[in-house]
Design the sequence.
């Protein structure tokens, strides 16, 4: 999966699950401060990303370092690269 | 003991927008019952009809509030908005600790409960379960979500006694206002239609299954051809307010709540009995300090089941005889279960205000086992003042509420 596909699928999660307008979904957007998610939303963000990318990230400690959309794109790319036969 | 009035009402039903839409549909004799697409996929489900309603304007509720709401909680928030507007109630008072919220349902959010189990059980895996699913299916989900959305900080609770949930909610609200613990309580019930809910009744042979191809001909309260209930959905809420509190605001309440009782028949887990219901109505009359002849109208539970309707007719005949008109609304709306008491109370008070009670839909030839009472088979005009609203539920539980129209 290339980066543009990761961006497209990740942004779709924010539109579908959190009703964020596409124009707000810029790489530097802060997930909490700019996009308005809170701690409960992050649980649902993880679930939605797991479904969208068919990955298991719920217990990955690196999630706690995520602040921006770009952090998510990077994190998903890393997870996919670490997955056998990805 | 303080006096309690209904100062505002709100409904979300399948017949139209708000109370005006509901009354328009009732007077036009409309039915919300239809054949439910996809229900034939459930093996063994005999009843394929329901009375659904479409969500409208749900995105007017901000996502942060809406994320914990299933359909029934959205209905409840919309009905609450209507009731507060109808009562011209100052929203700043909601957060002062003197206003409560009691909203019941049969089993919480059936859709969310089903989804949670579908995710969790097959693989014994909850990693794909989102954070909001259980907030959407809790037994107090409607009460919780309405109080959160409106900032209500007083007494918040849910009554969960199946089909009498909303009447018990109103009864609890009445007690809270009469005792002085709350100045006002938003009370009622909310329910969502789902095949798992209909199945609960279907396996007991309590649903209507003979009209799947003619859905608008069922349910048939008190009728000789009745064959069971049809599940519906919606929400009904009333704002119960202490009399002096309402008068000081200069508003015109809908009605005064004069009496209430809830009891149990104590004989059967699923079947009501005439004696239990008669005693419940008699207790409510005693609470209201009224005699049977002081009641102008009986708003029956009348689900269209063989056993339940006969027992209710018997209990009414024993206490009221055959002079007092008996009306039923489930032929129009289906059985909205935990919401039915409050929805039908609001509709009945609205019809009383207008001076016309609609005919009991699909009641053409009263069953011989439902004789001895005065059925409303044609629209009935009168100067109605006092109504008793009945309800019965699994567990043999009954509820009866008596209201007198005010200033309308």
Sequence:
């Amino acid at each position: 999966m290339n980066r543009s596909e990761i961006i497209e699928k990740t942004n779709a999660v924010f539109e579908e699950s959190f009703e964020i307008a596409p124009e707000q979904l810029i790489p530097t957007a802060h997930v909490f401060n700019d996009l308005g998610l809170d701690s409960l939303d992050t649980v649902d963000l993880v679930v939605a990303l797991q479904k969208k990318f068919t990955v298991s990230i719920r217990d990955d400690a690196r999630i706690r370092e995520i602040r921006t959309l770009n952090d998510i794109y990077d994190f998903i790319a890393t997870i996919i690269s670490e997955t056998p036969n990805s | 003991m303080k006096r309690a009035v209904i100062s505002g009402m709100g409904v979300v039903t399948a017949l139209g927008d708000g109370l005006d839409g509901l009354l328009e549909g009732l007077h036009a004799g409309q039915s919300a019952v239809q054949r439910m697409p996809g229900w034939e996929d459930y093996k063994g489900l005999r009843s394929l009809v329901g009375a659904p309603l479409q969500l409208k304007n749900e995105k007017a509720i901000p996502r942060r509030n809406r994320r914990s709401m299933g359909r029934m909680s959205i209905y409840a928030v919309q009905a609450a908005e209507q009731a507060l507007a109808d009562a011209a109630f100052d929203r700043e008072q909601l957060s002062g600790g003197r206003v409560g919220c009691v909203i019941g349902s049969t089993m919480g959010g059936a859709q969310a409960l089903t989804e949670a189990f579908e995710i969790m059980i097959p693989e014994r895996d909850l990693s794909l379960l989102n954070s909001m699913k259980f907030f959407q299916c809790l037994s107090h989900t409607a009460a919780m979500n309405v109080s959160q959305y409106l900032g209500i900080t007083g007494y918040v609770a849910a009554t969960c006694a199946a089909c009498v949930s909303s009447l018990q909610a109103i009864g609890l609200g009445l007690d809270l206002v009469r005792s002085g613990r709350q100045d006002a309580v938003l009370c009622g019930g909310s329910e969502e239609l789902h095949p798992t809910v209909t199945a609960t009744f279907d396996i007991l042979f309590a649903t209507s299954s003979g009209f799947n191809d003619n859905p608008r001909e069922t349910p048939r309260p008190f009728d000789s051809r009745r064959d069971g209930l049809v599940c519906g959905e919606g929400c009904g809420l009333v704002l119960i307010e202490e009399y002096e509190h309402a008068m000081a605001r200069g508003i015109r309440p809908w009605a005064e709540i004069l009496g209430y009782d809830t009891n149990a028949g104590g004989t059967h887990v699923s079947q009501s009995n005439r004696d239990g219901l008669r005693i419940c109505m008699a207790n409510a009359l005693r609470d209201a300090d009224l005699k049977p002849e002081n009641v102008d109208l009986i708003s029956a539970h009348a689900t269209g089941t063989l056993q339940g309707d006969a027992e209710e007719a018997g209990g009414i005949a024993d206490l009221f005889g055959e002079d007092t008109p008996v009306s039923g609304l489930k032929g129009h709306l289906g059985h909205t279960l935990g919401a039915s008491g409050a929805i039908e109370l609001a509709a009945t008070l609205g019809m009383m205000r207008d001076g016309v009670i609609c005919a009991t839909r699909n009641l053409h030839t009263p069953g011989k086992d439902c004789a001895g009472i005065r059925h409303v088979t044609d629209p009935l005009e009168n100067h109605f003042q006092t109504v008793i609203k009945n309800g019965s539920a699994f567990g043999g539980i009954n509820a009866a509420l008596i209201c007198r129209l005010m200033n309308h």
